[in-house]
TrEMBL record:
<feature type="transmembrane region" description="Helical">
    <location>
        <begin position="356"/>
        <end position="374"/>
    </location>
</feature>
<dbReference type="InterPro" id="IPR036259">
    <property type="entry name" value="MFS_trans_sf"/>
</dbReference>
<feature type="transmembrane region" description="Helical">
    <location>
        <begin position="45"/>
        <end position="64"/>
    </location>
</feature>
<feature type="transmembrane region" description="Helical">
    <location>
        <begin position="134"/>
        <end position="157"/>
    </location>
</feature>
<dbReference type="InterPro" id="IPR050189">
    <property type="entry name" value="MFS_Efflux_Transporters"/>
</dbReference>
<keyword id="KW-0812">Transmembrane</keyword>
<keyword id="KW-1133">Transmembrane helix</keyword>
<feature type="transmembrane region" description="Helical">
    <location>
        <begin position="326"/>
        <end position="350"/>
    </location>
</feature>
<dbReference type="InterPro" id="IPR011701">
    <property type="entry name" value="MFS"/>
</dbReference>
<dbReference type="Pfam" id="PF07690">
    <property type="entry name" value="MFS_1"/>
</dbReference>
<feature type="transmembrane region" description="Helical">
    <location>
        <begin position="292"/>
        <end position="314"/>
    </location>
</feature>
<feature type="transmembrane region" description="Helical">
    <location>
        <begin position="204"/>
        <end position="225"/>
    </location>
</feature>
<dbReference type="InterPro" id="IPR020846">
    <property type="entry name" value="MFS_dom"/>
</dbReference>
<feature type="transmembrane region" description="Helical">
    <location>
        <begin position="76"/>
        <end position="94"/>
    </location>
</feature>
<protein>
    <submittedName>
        <fullName>YbfB/YjiJ family MFS transporter</fullName>
    </submittedName>
</protein>
<feature type="transmembrane region" description="Helical">
    <location>
        <begin position="266"/>
        <end position="286"/>
    </location>
</feature>
<feature type="transmembrane region" description="Helical">
    <location>
        <begin position="163"/>
        <end position="183"/>
    </location>
</feature>
Length: 388
């Protein structure tokens, strides 16, 4: 069976994004206990490396656009795949802090290079009717990566944390080869229309950007503290099982494009915030229950993957001629929010407690989702009506 252009681009994008986001993005935190014990690093050094991985991601986001403008929209995805593979190899063999940091930063940068770049690739190479589904498939590739990461974590539990990074390196190479074989070359991306274009883009993206602030903040709170909750009262295997459950249930994100076409991207985004709120509340109120945490992971997987997929679909609908720039702008806003949220959480946990923080975060997500839904109702519920 011959794949359509959308099918080829979707398959390649899902593979690359799955490795960059579903695996490389979360592998450092997952392997942190093993790294700490094996390399005997201080918490300060480990924390600095964790922060540096974010800097790599942000650098990839900021530099992907200029590279696409010079070399074509496929170039950042090729470079991102290369960074993911090279970084994972370096971490696998690292015996000291410096190579560990270099490898982790390279691997962390992969997500910044590749994710938004596919928005440009899709809008320039895929027929319009196939674009929402293709974007949703690409973003939902993260689910497959999380499932694979959970499997590698089980192997690491009986072997070494280096097996996780070695597996990521092999997966990154395979994904890069698939990307080169299936994604068509495209010429340099068109230059934006100067300041006028930038100001118009900002006005158009006010609502998606506001959604990004809340969405990425509540997502990072869940991923940051879920393992802490689980390891208090549940078996060690609960953590890799959590990642796998999120990945499996997150595959429903492939339907995001079709659902957004029916009810509007804005309403889908609102429902995702409500869904994540339910997952956070379950974790905060019943984190010592295996059934409750399993339900929380499954609910979170749906909200997490659909929530990121709808952002790609939404920005491409609003600004089809500059889809990559629009998506990148929202991701940068979300990245800043992702940094601020754990800092704020760390400041309030001593007074509130972790469970109370999770419930409070759930309330913020719920209220934001309701506000977004009401905004959509007042605007008529369509994605394009959130523009200028």
């Amino acid at each position: 069976m011959t794949l359509s252009t959308g099918g080829r681009v979707g398959l390649a994008g899902a593979a690359v994004v799955g490795v960059a986001f579903g695996m490389a993005r979360y592998a450092y935190g997952l392997t942190l206990p093993g790294i700490r014990q094996d390399l005997e690093l201080s918490e300060l050094v480990l924390g600095l490396i964790a922060g540096a991985t974010f800097a790599g991601y942000l650098a990839g986001l900021l530099l992907a656009g200029p590279l696409a403008a010079r070399r074509g929209s496929r170039a950042p995805t090729t470079l991102g795949g290369t960074c993911g593979a090279a970084g994972a190899v370096i971490v696998t063999v690292a015996q000291s802090p410096l190579p560990l940091a270099v490898g982790a930063v390279l691997a962390g940068s992969a997500g910044g290079w590749v994710w938004a770049s596919y928005s440009d690739i899709v809008t320039r190479t895929v027929p319009p009717r196939q674009q929402p589904r293709t974007l949703a498939v690409i973003t939902t590739g993260t689910s497959g990566g999380l499932v694979l990461l959970g499997g590698l974590a089980v192997l690491a539990a009986v072997g070494s944390w280096r097996l996780v990074w070695g597996g990521i390196a092999l997966a990154a190479v395979a994904a890069a080869v698939v990307n080169l074989g299936l994604v068509p070359r495209a010429g340099p991306a068109p230059h934006p229309d100067g300041q006028r274009g930038a100001s118009s883009l900002t006005r158009t993206l006010k609502v998606p950007a506001a959604y990004s602030v809340v969405y990425f903040a509540v997502i990072v709170i869940y991923f940051t503290y879920a393992a802490d909750v689980l390891t208090r009262d549940l078996p060690a295997a609960a953590v890799p099982a959590l990642y796998a459950a999120i990945g499996v249930t997150g595959t429903v994100g492939v339907a995001t494009g079709a659902v957004a076409r029916r009810v509007g991207s804005l309403r889908v985004a609102a429902l995702c915030l409500v869904t994540v709120a339910a997952a956070l509340a379950l974790l905060g109120l019943a984190g010592d229950s295996l059934a409750a945490t399993a339900a929380s992971a499954c609910v979170f997987g749906v909200g997490y993957m659909t929530g990121s997929a709808v952002l790609a679909v939404w920005t491409a609908e609003l600004v089809p001629e500059r889809a990559g720039a629009a998506f990148t702008g929202c991701l940068i806003v979300g990245a800043v929010s992702s940094v601020a949220a754990p800092v704020l959480a760390g400041a309030v946990i001593p007074g509130l407690g972790l469970e109370a923080l999770l419930v409070l975060t759930a309330a913020v997500s719920l209220l934001s989702g309701v506000a977004l839904w009401l905004h959509g109702a007042s605007a008529g519920g369509t994605a394009t009506e959130t523009g200028p």
